[in-house]
Design goal:
By secondary structure, the protein is α+β, with helices and mostly antiparallel strands. The protein contains 7 helices and 17 strands. Strand 16 and strand 17 form a beta hairpin. The structure holds FE2/S2 (inorganic) cluster and fe (ii) ion.
Length: 389
């Protein structure tokens, strides 16, 4: 198994625990092929994985496709309005039955025209009548478990996985005032990136770099020293990070203040900070008074990932005739900040491949890395125990 051994997993313990005493993860966790395969079993085969928003499949017949860990996935809304998640792999000779998104009555596989209903059952398979012991009633696109949390669609390859929402109660309570379940969304932007999914997840949760990498008028109002990291329980499926702002309703644009309508139920406390909600391994929310950015990260390989970056706004925000121009103010600034982050992500991945990459120590401003490590290591160790039993 190469890298994976009892000694390797015993060494991981030093990344668990309080941030003041713990170490960063071994660089191989971000680069090694065997470790990525191990991680598929430890995380991706059993955790709830975000794949998009319910809004993307509002009407009967709506569907969209996506992928994670190399698995092509299809999400549909059936005629009776049920949401379904399934593999997009044709059960004949593995062609993908759908691409992109749209509205349809069913899926005709382009290769030999097997026809699947919106719930994944096979309804027609031409010229199969001479095929012995072929019962089309036994064939269907393999189903995945599905759960909607706060308007986000989560799927699970493990059909027996315990539900997600009860383990996100604390996160749900902390973000309740944003009412994102109903928040209007803009079409997400999808990109492919040459780095490990954890590099991205950690960057989005790193309070330490805010006042350094992003120093300047587009970010100085969210200073690193105002980062706080509420403790998560070991059984929680997600964790929070707050970053106080130097003035209320701070927003990423040159005015440094909200330019879109503020989410109407926000408290004074909410408006005096940015809230980061994290549901590893696929969802990270950046919540400001007038805009929520969500990152839907989907691992594609040890050193590659895909991401949908989406935006949620307050109800009615889009009705303002100047909405696009106001949004542009934010996006122009956000793009500059994101470009700084992505430059770092790309070069960190290169650095992690080096023989000189080390396990280092954390600043207190990296508390969210400790939270992620705890979430990861618990699962890594339990899986290693199971595999070697
Ligand atoms: S591969 Fe789909 S019908 Fe043959
Ligand atoms: Fe950043």
């Amino acid at each position: 198994m190469g890298l994976l051994s009892d000694a390797f997993f015993a060494d991981l313990a030093s990344s668990d625990g309080d941030i003041s005493t713990s170490q960063t993860l071994p660089p191989a966790c971000y680069t090694d092929h065997d470790f990525y395969r191990f991680e598929q079993e430890a995380l991706f085969n059993h955790e709830w994985l975000c794949v998009g928003r319910e809004d993307q499949v509002k009407n009967p017949g709506d569907y969209f496709t996506t992928q994670i860990i190399g698995e092509p996935i299809l999400i549909t809304r059936t005629r009776d309005r049920a949401l379904k998640a399934m593999s997009a792999v044709c059960q004949h000779r593995a062609m993908l039955v759908a691409e992109g998104a749209g509205n349809t009555r069913g899926f005709v596989c382009p290769y030999h025209h097997w026809v699947y209903a919106l719930d994944g059952t096979l309804v027609n398979a031409p010229a199969m009548e001479r095929t012995c012991d072929f019962d089309k009633g036994e064939v269907r696109l393999p189903p995945l478990a599905l759960e909607v949390w706060q308007g986000f669609i989560f799927v699970n390859f493990d059909l027996d996985a315990p539900p997600l929402a009860p383990r996100l109660a604390k996160v749900a309570e902390a973000i309740a005032n944003y009412e994102i379940e109903e928040a209007p969304m803009l079409a997400p932007i999808t990109g492919q990136f040459p780095w490990n999914w954890k590099v991205m997840f950690e960057n989005n949760n790193d309070g330490y770099h805010a006042s350094k990498l992003h120093r300047g008028p587009l970010h100085d109002f969210v200073p690193s020293e105002r980062a706080t990291f509420p403790e998560a329980d070991p059984t929680d499926a997600g964790f929070l990070r707050y970053n106080g702002t130097t003035h209320p309703d701070a927003s990423f644009n040159p005015t440094q203040r909200a330019v879109l309508p503020i989410f109407p139920k926000l408290s004074e406390e909410d408006r005096g900070r940015m809230t980061f909600a994290n549901i590893p391994p696929t969802l990270s929310l950046v919540m400001t008074s007038d805009l929520v950015i969500y990152l839907n990260l989907r691992a594609a390989g040890p050193e590659t990932m895909e991401q949908d970056t989406g935006i949620l706004v307050a109800p009615g925000a889009m009705e303002d005739p100047a909405f696009e121009h106001r949004l542009e103010m934010i996006m122009t600034s956000a793009k500059k900040i994101i470009a700084q982050d992505m430059h770092v992500d790309e070069l960190v991945q290169k650095g992690l491949r080096s023989r000189y990459a080390v396990r280092s120590r954390y600043s207190w401003q990296e508390g969210a890395q400790g939270q992620l490590n705890r979430w990861l290591i618990r699962r890594y160790l339990a899986t290693w125990e199971r595999m070697r039993a």
